[in-house]
Write a structure and sequence with these properties.
InterPro entries: Protohaem_IX_farnesylTrfase, UbiA_prenyltransferase, UbiA_sf
Keywords: Heme biosynthesis, Membrane, Transferase, Transmembrane, Transmembrane helix
CATH topology of the largest domain: Four Helix Bundle (Hemerythrin (Met), subunit A)
Strand content: under 5%
Number of domains: 2
Shape: globular
Structural class: mainly alpha
Radius of gyration: 25 Å
Number of strands: 0
Helix content: over 70%
Largest sheet: none
Distance between the termini: 85 Å
Pfam families: UbiA
Organism: Cercospora beticola
Membrane topology: Multi-pass membrane protein
C-alpha cells in the first residue's frame, strides 16, 4: 500500500511488493491510483449507472481511508475490510438490475435510482450475495493470518488473530454458521431454486466443521490451515452452485432445448388475425 511500505517490509507476504522494493516511487503510485480510480468510476457512471459508480468510489474511500488507517489502530479493521469485499458483488447486482429499472437516471435524481436498485425487495438478492462475501472473509482471513500472526504483530498491525486467537476462532465459527441462513435467503427470495439450500449446505457444512476445529484447537494441529483451504473452496463452489441453480434457469434451458413455445410466440398466435385464403375465381 502507498501509505505503509515501511511496515509491509517487515512481513514475508508483503515485502516483495513494488513499493516496498523501490521499483516504483510513491509519487508515481499515487498518480496511477488517482488516475485509475477516476477513470474507473467515470466509466461506471457513464457506461453503467451512477449507483454502481458511487458504490465503487465509496469502496476506494473505505479501503484507502478507513481500513488502511485502522489496521494499525484496532482489530475492528477486519470488519471494515469485510465491507470492502462485500461491495463489489453489490455493484454487480446494481449493474445487472439497471437494465430492468423503471427509473430513468437522466430524468430523475440519483437518489431515486439508488433507492430502486438498492432498497427494494428486488434488491435483497444483491445484499444476500454481498452478505456471503462479508461473512466469508472472517474464516478465510483469520485462518490465513494465523500462520503469520507474529509478523502482523511485529509490523504493528492490530489484527484480532495476533491479539486474541480464541476470539478470532469464535468469530470465524460464527460467520461460517451465518452462511446457512444467508444461502437459504437466496432461495426464499427466489434468486435460486429451493435445492440450493441443500447443495450449499454441504460445502458450508465442511467450512463450519473446520471452523469448529480451529475454535476447539485454538488454531493448532493444522486446524487453521484446514479452515483456510475449506474457505478457499467454499466461496467459488457456493457461487457456482448459485449460478447453476438460479431460479427458473433449467426450465428455460429445457424449453430452449426441446422447442417449447416462448411467451412472445404464444402472444402473437393469440392476437394476430387469421390469414385470408385466396378463393378461386376471386
Amino acid at each position: 500500500m502507498l501509505f505503509e511500505p515501511q511496515h509491509d517490509a517487515k512481513m514475508s507476504r508483503t515485502k516483495n511488493r513494488p513499493l516496498v522494493r523501490g521499483l516504483i516511487s510513491k509519487r508515481r503510485a499515487l498518480i496511477f491510483s488517482i488516475a485509475t480510480g477516476v477513470i474507473g468510476t467515470g466509466l461506471l457512471w457513464y457506461g453503467v449507472n451512477p449507483t454502481t459508480s458511487l458504490l465503487g468510489a465509496a469502496n476506494i474511500a473505505i479501503y484507502a481511508g478507513a481500513y488502511t488507517y485502522l489496521k494499525r489502530i484496532h482489530p475492528v479493521n477486519t470488519w471494515v475490510g469485510a465491507i470492502v469485499g462485500a461491495i463489489p458483488p453489490l455493484m454487480g447486482w446494481c449493474a445487472a438490475a439497471s437494465q430492468y429499472s423503471t427509473t430513468d437516471a437522466s430524468q430523475s435524481s440519483i437518489w431515486e435510482e439508488a433507492k430502486e436498485l438498492l432498497f427494494t425487495e428486488q434488491a435483497i438478492g444483491g445484499w444476500l450475495i454481498a452478505g456471503i462475501l462479508f461473512a466469508w472473509q472472517f474464516p478465510h482471513f483469520f485462518a490465513l493470518a494465523y500462520a503469520v500472526r507474529q509478523e502482523y504483530a511485529s509490523a504493528g498491525y492490530k489484527m484480532l488473530v495476533s491479539t486474541n486467537i480464541p476470539m478470532a476462532a469464535r468469530v470465524s465459527f460464527r460467520y461460517s454458521l451465518a452462511m446457512f441462513p444467508i444461502c437459504a435467503g437466496l432461495s426464499y427470495y427466489h434468486v435460486t431454486d429451493p435445492a440450493f439450500v441443500v447443495t450449499s449446505s454441504v460445502i458450508n457444512g465442511w467450512m463450519l466443521k473446520e471452523a469448529w476445529r480451529m475454535w476447539k484447537l485454538n488454531g493448532e494441529k493444522g486446524s487453521a490451515r484446514a479452515l483456510f483451504w475449506a474457505s478457499v473452496w467454499q466461496l467459488p463452489i457456493v457461487l457456482v452452485l448459485a449460478m447453476m441453480q438460479k431460479k427458473g434457469l433449467w426450465s428455460r434451458v429445457w424449453n430452449a432445448t426441446f422447442g417449447e413455445p416462448e411467451l412472445d410466440d404464444e402472444w402473437e398466435e393469440e392476437v394476430m388475425p387469421p390469414r385470408k385464403t385466396l378463393q378461386s375465381g376471386s
